[in-house]
Amino acid sequence: MAGPQPIDRTWFGRIVPQEVQIRCCFQRVKNRVVRFTVQLELFHRGNWAPVVRYDNAHGFCHRDTLHPDGSQDKAGISVGDANQTFTYAIEELRANWEAHRARYLGEPVR
């Protein structure tokens, strides 16, 4: 008998319509998130640009801070398991989106 099947979901949290959004993609098995990406996006120069991304790719939970020049900084995040980190990421981006946007827009584009 096969075990529970994974369920994939994607949703968007519109912070400022047509300007700032949070994109959440996750896979869960029963009530447990097993894979996730939570990304703050800014509509900039005609496209949705990723500004900050939390995920558990590469086998660990981490945050990528993305820069307009295409570079990124990766930092491990230790707030618990994937479920807890998923929730933390959503809350952190909702609370701090203005600071993330200001940082991104204040950086030079090469």
Low-confidence stretches: none
Q: Tell me the fraction of residues in β-strands, as a range.
A: over 45%
Strand order of the largest sheet: 1-2-3-4-5-6
Shape: globular
Order of helices and strands: EEEEEEH
- Give the terminus-to-terminus CA distance: 55 Å
- Kindly report the average pLDDT value: 93
Radius of gyration: 15 Å
- Please provide the count of β strands: 6
Biggest sheet details: 6 strands, antiparallel
Structural class: alpha+beta
The helix content, as a percent range, equals: 10-25%
The number of distinct structural domains comes to 1
Using brief descriptors, characterize the structure shown.
22% helix; 110 residues; 1 helix; 6-stranded antiparallel sheet
Summarize the structure.
With 110 residues, the chain is an alpha+beta fold.
Note down, in words, how this protein is organized.
The chain is α+β, with helices and mostly antiparallel strands. The protein has one domain (7-105). 22% of the residues lie in helices and 47% in strands. It is built from 1 helix and 6 strands; from the N terminus they run E-E-E-E-E-E-H. The chain has one helix at residues 82-105; strands at residues 7-16, 20-29, 32-44, 47-55, 62-66, 72-76. Strands 1-2-3-4-5-6 form a 6-stranded antiparallel β-sheet, with helices on one face. The longest helix is centred in the last third of the chain and has 24 residues, at 82-105. The relative contact order is 0.18. The model has no long low-confidence stretch (mean pLDDT 93).
